[in-house]
Amino acid sequence: MKNAAIAAIVLFCSLKPALASVDPALQQLLISAKQKVDLSYNQTTPFQMDVDFVIQLAVPTRGHLTLKWEAKDRWWRGVVIEGFQQIEVKNGEWHYTSRNLDYTPMQVVNLIGLLDFDYLNLGGDSGEMIAKKGKQRTEAGVEMNCIQVERKGNASRNVCFDAASNDILVVESKEHADWPFRVQYSDYFDFGIHRYPHKLEWLEGGSKVVSAKVVSLISAPFDESLLTPPQGAIARRECEGMTGAFPIKTVGPSYPKSASSSGLMGDTTVAMTILTDGTVTNIHIVGRATRSMDDAALKALKEWRFKPAMCGTEPVVTDTTVMFGFRMSY
User: Fold this and answer.
1) Own/partner pairs, 176-182, CB within 8 angstroms, 24+ separation
2) pLDDT per residue as tens digits for the range 91-106
3) How confident is the model at residue 52 (pLDDT cuts 50, 70, 90)?
4) What's the whole-model pTM score?
5) Cα(306)–Cα(79) distance, integer angstroms
6) If you count Cβ atoms within 10 Å of the first and of the last residue's Cβ in the chain, which end, N or C, has fewer?
7) How far apart are CA 12 and CA 178, in angstroms?
């Protein structure tokens, strides 16, 4: 169910600690927990999931998502909110996206990441998670066992489980102090061999960005006609073992004098397409700071170059987002 074509890069300057060795017992707990919530893991029966959600745009905006699934490489997903509609089709190695805007709002990307438990993957090509150490804590009267996890590249997150059921309750970032996020899951229910949460939330800087509720998850026949690509859909190849694009030349934006003199700070998020030659196109701002910061981010991106995503020895087109954090040093 993952949209492998969408990745994210967050640009901050930081020092990274050395990666600690794995704890085998905690590692197995982490793997088992992921398999339990991954609805595509050992799933042999087609299903349909319906989700009501609220995302924070200019104002809180309600929407609905429907996923119709037959296999990891055969599914249909539709998202509808006021002013935006998107249909995705996965058929074999091809992923098709049809939408009425030039980009997918970042809050919709966050919603899909919530439902797919992408925040346990820690990004990167391998997505390999390393369980470092565990500790116990109590939150809102609930006892939790928490694991600090890292991956190659040293991104770090905490994953917290219900001490009684081992259901995943919280995933919180530790990568960047300037971009804290927290994912919350609750009200789990059984679905076949899996357990899945009714309620899912994504918070940034303490503010709720996405709130979702699974209103239905049932076994249901899959209509083969859903695999027909929508007219005018964007096509992306996503093969097994695909390696993602990564930047080989980056240029940080200059802090605009108009912003720095006023002590202004902010984040500019940009969506773009990475072509097979490593250049970028189809650039759109999906999260705004000030106009001067946004302009500085766009100017910097024009000089970026990537090693493109690869299917074996063949470069393929992918989409990504980049967030530039503008922060004052005191």
Assistant:
1) 176/10, 176/12, 176/14, 176/325, 178/12, 178/325, 178/327, 179/10, 179/12, 179/204, 179/267, 179/323, 179/325, 180/204, 180/205, 180/206, 181/119, 181/205
2) 999 999 999 998 899 8
3) very high
4) 0.86
5) 30
6) C
7) 8
